[in-house]
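pinned: reference chain
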Amino acid sequence: MDSIGGELQFMTPRPFGGEQLEAIRSISTERRYKAGEDVLRVGQPYDRFVVVVEGRIQVIDAFTDEPVEDAIMNPGQFIGELAFLNAGNNTLPLRAAIDTVTLEAPREAMLELMSRVPEIGDHVLTVFAARRRALFEEGESAIKLIGADADPAVQRVAIFLSRNRIPFQSYDLDEKSEEGVAVCRLAAHQPAVLLGRGNKVEDPTPRKVAALLGLDLESCDIGQLDLLIVGGGPAGVAAAVYAGSEGLKAIVIEDSAIGGQAGTSSRIENYMGFPTGISGADLIFRGQVQAMKFGTRFAMPRQVRSLEQTGDGFCATLDGGDTLCARAVLVATGVQYRRLPVPRIEEFEGAGIYYAATEMEARFCRETEAVVVGGGNSAGQAAMFLSRFANHVHVLVRGPDLASSMSAYLRSRLEADPHITIHYRCQLAGLEGDKHLSGVRISTPQGEEEIGASALFLMIGAQPNTAWLSGLVDLDERGFVKTGAAAGVTSDFETSCPGIFAVGDVRSGSVKRVASSVGEGSVVVSAIWSHLDTLDRAAKPVVAPPMPATAA
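pinned: its structure tokens
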């Protein structure tokens, strides 16, 4: 199955040299470090691109302060990983192993050079992506999570990091390994999040951790925007790629994790170009990398609470009171799984009830039975994935079959898998457990039954997230955004309010598929560009032609 990048261990080092090195030199300043001097500390922003000219730069373990074996940058090689693209913060210390000379280019200048010289940009992105994959899969990071097995708050942070492909290491409170004991001692054997030895996050939330990593809006110098994209699912990220490539100044606001509902899918096999499949999170993450390459920024986890029309566009108020203003707005907030009207649902969210089935949630299914509620493709993909971890997976389907709601290839796999049981004409009736879910009650045609499961995945219903639009656009009877002819306009993706566009699952009448959302997000940028061009031409003063000379 495809991932977010190549495998670093199999890549031959290709140091910069010749014309490419000289191109980097032309935008850089030279700097010298003494042996043992820090080049980049934990939590320091990636505000510059650093190439080694002479000497060596070594990656350092943030907890032991010892060099990481084989993690060295030699002359012609460069430091950093994908966080550089979004002006994020560093999670691995870097230090001069010997006296070292570097070329250091400002981030914005390097991004412009990468765009102008594709050979340089391609090489940097390939290495950055491979490094991120290695860090993520190996958990090499200064971010340590303690107690995710016992504390829903730490669990939410773990899920946020995992779905955003940010490397971290997780430790149980009863960790017995030498390293685990040492880390838990730093956390006073309480659920916590550590960033290096010096930063302990109490009462951890995704927002607090995002701020430490430079992912939050407060870390961004935004200014006036051409386009505000609300929602980081397939449609929003596709639009981010094309907006950036067209030179529009854009930012994506996402309230949880890049990928949206597609990001909760552990394996997508029917998306063109990935014959062996790819997880939804990895697919959309690749798009995010492309968008960041073109200069589009991402801020998360943030929510837009309200939208106001202004003289030159729109201003959005975010949670926390921050305001963003843009000349155009793209609604790409998609849909969210419905919370079922069953007692104690909220009580067990994060303590046995989940709305996604990725690697992070799967770890909580080991040696137990899992229940998936839903009959769509996402539910089918979740059941197949979870069957590799849980003792058995039960799929609850309200209807008599799956023919009208699930792709044929998934139906046949579910029906043939001995580790999966499909319960037709059945609904969730109740929940059991103390502090953590221990069982579910289901209503069947034969009566009520109980399944001893400690993991329940809810993947049913499709509620649009449109309340924040503050009544500025027309919605259909279900709350989805009307566009095109239904909104009384000619552009397929424009809403009833000029300057506000909508794409993807949130749009009334859209096809609820990843490929369709990506297509809409790609195409809409042309209409947005035309709208902005019209605004620009209207703002230019009309200059009267000179009067002809009058004969004497």
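why pinned: DSSP finds 13 helices and 28 strands in the chain. The mean pLDDT is 90.
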